Amino acid sequence: MNKNDLIGSVADASGLTKGDASKAVEAVFDAITGALGKGDEVRLVGFGTFSVAKRKASTGRNPRTGEPMAIKASSQPKFKAGKGLKDSVN
């Protein structure tokens, strides 16, 4: 399922037009992105938790030359599936 399929599914399930469903889906994505950008966690009970994981700086190797290179510390988005989502898949 891609984003357009998701929008179509939301429109069908909610009775919204595809334009309104698109705005709703975009608003959800923007809200989650904004919260993660602030370092907050987004918990959707029964679905899962979006959070930010900190990665420490490390040393890696350039795959072409084999030379060591520094990898900067960064923040990565992380998702942990909730019980309801896990149960619906299994």
Keywords:
single chain; 90 residues; alpha+beta; 3-stranded antiparallel beta sheet; two-stranded antiparallel ribbon; 3 helices; 5 strands
Protein architecture, described:
The chain is of the alpha+beta class and 90 residues long. The protein is built from 3 helices and 5 strands. It has helices spanning 3-14, 18-37, 83-89, and strands at 42-44, 48-55, 58-61, 68-71, 74-81. The strands form 2 sheets. Strands 1-2-5 form a 3-stranded antiparallel β-sheet. Strand 3 and strand 4 (68-71) form a beta hairpin. The protein is elongated and about 55 Å long.
Beta-strand residue fraction: 25-35%
Strand order of the largest sheet: 1-2-5
By secondary-structure content and strand pairing, the structural class works out as alpha+beta
Average pLDDT confidence is 94
Proportion of residues in helical segments: 40-55%
Radius of gyration over C-alpha positions, nearest whole angstrom: 19 Å
Distance between the termini: 19 Å
Number of strands: 5
Number of helices: 3
Order of helices and strands: HHEEEEEH
Overall shape: elongated
Main β sheet profile: 3 strands, antiparallel
**Low-confidence segments, ≥5 residues, pLDDT <50?**
none
Briefly, what is this?
The protein is 43% helix and 30% strand.
Please describe the topology of this protein.
Blueprint: H1 3-14, H2 18-37, E1 42-44, E2 48-55, E3 58-61, E4 68-71, E5 74-81, H3 83-89
Antiparallel strand pairs: 1-2, 2-5, 3-4
Helix pairs in contact: 1-2
